[in-house]
Amino acid sequence: xxxxxxxxxxxxxxxxxxxxxxxxxxxxxxxxxxxxxxxxxxxxxxxxxxxxxxxxxxxxxxxxxxxxxxxxxxxxxxxxxxxxxxxxxxxxxxxxxxxxxxxxxxxxxxxxxxxxxxxxxxxxxxxxxxxxxxxxxxxxxxxxxxxxxxxxxxxxxxxxxxxxxxxxxxxxxxxxxxxxxxxxxxxxxxxxxxxxxxxxxxxxxxxxxxxx
Length: 212
Hints:
By secondary structure, this protein is an alpha/beta fold. 38% of the residues lie in helices and 19% in strands.
């Protein structure tokens, strides 16, 4: 198994990079593990209390569950991945059955934050983008998909997203083996990633190495 971590700020294009990589590879040989699925279970809180949670802080994630399930996949075991609703601001009852695959992508704002999680990865990627571009993407996404107004998004960006990015996300860039500027629009970088992963898939007997 070849595990790839894809990190980057909110709106950087990391999800787009992950999607383009998956679409370009043989069907059924890649599994995607979104870090957002591992937000803490806030069932005991009401909606007002859930909205006050800082979802861009490391404490918002269930690291134990994420690391435990990644280790299970690496050991060849299937997992029941949790699912998360941005509208409910909470984990759902339904889970997603995920079988081990030759390549596993772990994608999220803090995919490179936790040392134990990084140690499971064969390749670590940080998707970079200009702060103005990230803000525009966040506004478009949150209004369309998460039921927020423009003012809500801007207020959240200034009070939460920006300071959390500077404190917790940007510093993880130093752990990356590869930094992709211009987000998901960087076709050359995505092509290089695709070639690297295809090389790993074609190695005999499923043997993987970090360097092609």
